[in-house]
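Thread: quick sanity check before group meeting

JM: Hey all, I'm pulling together slides for Thursday and realized we never actually wrote out the predicted structure for the chain we discussed last week. Dropping the sequence here so it's in one place. If anyone has concerns about the input, flag it before I start.
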Amino acid sequence: MPAETGDIVFFPGKIGHIGMFYDANRIIHATNSENFHLSDNQTMDGGSISYMTSRAFRPPWSKLPAGQEAVKKAELRRVADRMKDIATYGLYRAFRLWAGNSSFGPGAEARLAKYRARLDGTATDADRKFVTHITCSEAVMLTYQLAFPDREAPFFIRLDAAHTMPNTLADWLQKNGWTAESV
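JM (edit): ok, ran it. Output follows.
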């Protein structure tokens, strides 16, 4: 199947690296060498096309009310664009994934409220930068959490983005009705 905006991709051969399809041909992800950025999903090598990935998790868009799929995909791109314009890869944050709990508790709630206020321009803190340092998995989860402010299940990922390893996210997606697709 062709890739779609919002598909969450787990990169083969790269332990713990994930991204989100920004559109049918580009993936937005963070790496320690290129920060949060867009990459083409395919490359040409000697006339043959190779793909960065072939498998992704797709959200169950049919659970949204009629007409909302396009609206929510546009919101995912808007949030991802803001991250892309500001965020850098936070290597120390990658180490933080190992500490703490992946449950969406008070700490995750407080961070999400802070990021939402910064995204919406209602923050009162002096920094007011939306997100400054981020990991690839944190970026994907936070994009979904901010794009679904009413916490619509199963689109709002109920995990602590700062402390969730990619394999934990993959398990959560499978348990919550997202389908594994070949893209």
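AS: nice. Residues 8-182 form one domain. The chain has a mean pLDDT of 83.
JM: adding both to the slides.
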